[in-house]
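Morning F.,

Quick status update on the modeling queue. The single chain you submitted on Monday has been processed. Sequence for confirmation:
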Amino acid sequence: MKRNFMHQLQWACDSPGDFHFMWERLRVTFWSLWGSERYKGSLSHLKDIGNRRHADRGVKTFNVCDELLRHASQAHLLAAVTSHLNVATPSNPIACDHELTNSWRLRDVAERIASSTVLPKEPDIHLKNDDQVCLMHRRVLHLGFLHELLRDSVRKENGPLVIILWRLWLPMFLGSGRKNYSVEAANLLANLKADWSSSMAFIHTHNRSVNMSGKETVAKLWIT
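Structure tokens below.
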């Protein structure tokens, strides 16, 4: 007679899968940044420049679209850094007054780039109201950073940071009309905060990815 071990898992609780969260978040990002092929700086325009013609607005092919966003955000970041440091090209040596010889100096430059270019606290007085290209570049940098942050938190098995990103994307899902994922995010956050026990909340926070190799920074998401 076979023993049924499923009853031993009755204590477990359901949790939304982060792989589908990443896919839906990428889809919302593409809807926001797609534009038209004639709209310079949009993903629709950049996919032709970067020879990623199979990328599409609905993110039917995850890997292609994921690669396009990563390349676009990295290129925008490189352009922002060279502009901030006042160098002509990334291959040029950085001037002495911008020499990045230690971690605190690098952190300071990164914070100033983020506050002045990605998420400026004050409106740029030199930016014209109709300069949509510049605004699009900032949106690509902002959403591209969030995309890379989620990928990095998964690889490093940083469950608490993944939960923070669920909280951050809840209003974005609401604003884009993604009701199902808004409900999933709200239920997860409510369960972690008020419904589940501390041990159950710990399990659902720190077991959101799996590492099959035992090596650092190579964890992957559960696919449910």
